[in-house]
Structures are given as C-alpha cells and as structure tokens.
Amino acid sequence: MKLLHVVGTRPNFVKAMPVIRALTAQASDCEQIVIHTGQHYDPNMSQTFFDDFDLPCTIENLNVGSGSHAAQTGNIMRRFEPALLKYAPRAVVVYGDVNSTLAAAIVAAKCGTPVIHVEAGLRSGDRTMPEEINRILTDQIAEQLFAPSRDAVANLAAEGISGDNVHFVGNVMIDTLVNFLPRCNSDEVLRKLDIEADRYVMATIHRPSNVDSEEKLTNIVHALAEISRELVVIFPVHPRTVPKLAPLERVINASGIRLVDPLGYTDFISLQRAARLVITDSGGVQEETTYMCIPCLTVRPNTERPVTVSHGTNRLVAPTRDSILSEYKLALETSTARCNIELWDGRAARRIADIVAAEYGNAR
Fold first, then answer.
1. Nearest-angstrom CA–CA distance, 304 and 124
2. Can you give the pLDDT of all 364 residues of the chain as single tens digits?
3. Count of C-beta atoms within a 10 Å radius of residue 55
4. Domains in the chain, ordered, with CATH?
5. Which of 8, 30, 4 lies closest to 111 in space, CA to CA?
6. At what angle do helices 99-110 and 130-141 cross, to 10 degrees?
7. Could you give the residue numbers annotated as active site?
8. Contacts of 160 (CB under 8 A, 6+ apart)
9. Does this model's pTM top 0.85?
C-alpha cells in the first residue's frame, strides 16, 4: 500500500502528522510520501513544523508559493500531476479545506486515484469563503470521508453523501495537541517573551476577509490596543498580514500590543495554554482553545466548527471595536467547562488508520 499525503499550510501539517504516524504503526505494507505544495512557503510557516514533527517518510516540496486563488490552485494542479504519476499511490490523502486540498483532489480524481478526505463535512454555510467551496467540492470527489464531529456527518448527509464511506472518527487536530501538550513548556516561552501566565491575550488574525479590509483591520487593532491597557496582547503575525499593519504602526507602538514572528507548533500551543483569552480568525485555534478550556473570540460572522460555540468556549464576534470589546469583557467573566466533545480523545488517527488499512492494504 502506497499513500500520498498532500499538505500545503501549517494546519495541514498538524492534521497529517498523527495520521501518518498511526498508519506507520498500523499497516506493515504502507509506504507514505508527503507532498508539500508550498502554499505556505515561509520557513516559520512550514519547515519549522516538519522539524517539530519529524515525519517518518519521504517529503517532496512543489514550491508553488502565493498567488490568487485561481492561479495558486491551477499551479498546484499542474505541479501535483507529475508527482502523482511518479509515485502512483493506491490513494491520495488530503486534509482540511485549503487550495492544496481541492487541487490535489481534482487531479487525483481525474487520474483515477481514490481520494481520502480527513476533516470532511465541516460547513460554515458561507459560500463567499473560498474554503467553503474547497470543502464542498472535495467532499463530492472523495471516496472515503473522515468527519471530526456529528454535525459534519449531518452536513454530508444533507448533501447526499452518506453510507459506508462516511466515518465519524473524531478530530485529528486534537490528536496532535494531546501528543504534544506534555512537551509544551509555557514557562520557557513566557520567559522569552517576558510575560506572565494568565496576564496576556493572544491574537492571531490572518484571514483575507479581515486583514485585506482596511476598515476591519483598523477596528480589530484599535480593539486590541484598548484591551492591551489591561492585559498585554501577544500577536504572532502571519507573513501576509505584516504589510497590512504598516498604516497602523503608530497605534500599535503606542499600545501594549507586541508583534512577534510566527511560532513553531510547541511554542504556539505553549503560548495558547497560558493565555487569559485568545482572539483569532483561525479554525484550528478554535478547536485547540476549546480542548484546553481557554476562552476564545473568533472574529468571523460564522464558523465551520459550531461545536466549539455550542460547547461554550468560543464566541463569534463582529470585526468592530465595540463588538470585540463587549465580547472580551463577557468572555473574561465566563468560566469554561472541561472539554467533553465526543471522540475528541486523541485517538482519531488510529480510527482512520484502521479503516484505511482495511480498505487499501493489509493490516498488521
């Protein structure tokens, strides 16, 4: 059994790592190759994750880089096809909802190679989000679909996708988190940044819908500046966000906002777990904070992970100064319950490996 895992962004690396390791342990005949499309090409956004995870398999980088959604998707398809033909895998495993996910799924399907989609069925209901289009189309193409939550299974059924190829397995992001939490040294990270646990807010804002809008980004930064009067705001900045913040430099410099470079996985989780609150527009951070019971404000009108909202740790908030400040005060006053979301138990990848080994190879 030969499998090709396609990753392109840092959340993909986090999702792929436990699946690759579980398959290595489960399937004696499993040869695994990772194709990194290069969608995230900054070393802090990609290579540091490979260093952290030490994946036990061949890794090939397509070095696609940035571009418009159409250009990037097309370039990934063009460069992925020769890799697919070169390795001739039994199946292609794709993760999440980024352009790399859809591009690889299309190429594999057209070449007659089965597609396995890890994190299938998530929906925000907002088709203005490129990721929503990627999710919907990838699920229509996939032969095996692994859903992280019950609502994801229901979403697939509503779109006519059901049966033995849909599997509710739990959340592989949580597998990686459970694996790495014992190695995360919050004290060490806090010493480096000269901050105290529970005395800061962590912010991660990178989505084009927020950072490409001058009005929204200005509102978000002004809200963070106001919050920083009470608690330090630590803001690991995505490379594409850096130039967008330039017009707001005076506001940032006059506040308690501290911009830092993107962090490796263990440092990022270490910083999250000791934060008083997290403000984000990331999907994965919503899940990580939920598991660690850290209050989270998601600066988006919707989420494809509604279980984090119904659980009570995550709140959706409009990208306005007043909305963020109002929800910030409420979140600080609200206690968070222990995470008990079904199958968020650190064993999702093992369930995936069992099914994939039975379907495409000989189980050990």
1. 4
2. 999 999 998 899 999 999 999 999 987 788 999 999 987 555 554 566 566 677 667 789 998 888 889 999 999 999 999 999 999 999 999 999 999 999 999 999 999 999 999 999 999 999 999 999 999 999 999 999 999 999 999 999 999 999 999 999 999 999 999 999 999 999 999 999 999 999 999 999 999 999 999 999 999 999 999 999 999 999 999 888 999 999 999 999 999 999 999 998 999 999 999 999 999 999 999 999 999 999 999 999 999 999 999 988 899 999 999 999 999 999 988 766 677 899 999 999 999 999 999 999 854 3
3. 20
4. 2-170+344-360 (3.40.50.2000), 182-333 (3.40.50.2000)
5. 4
6. 30
7. 206
8. none
9. yes
Copy the structure tokens of residue 317. Answer: 């908030």
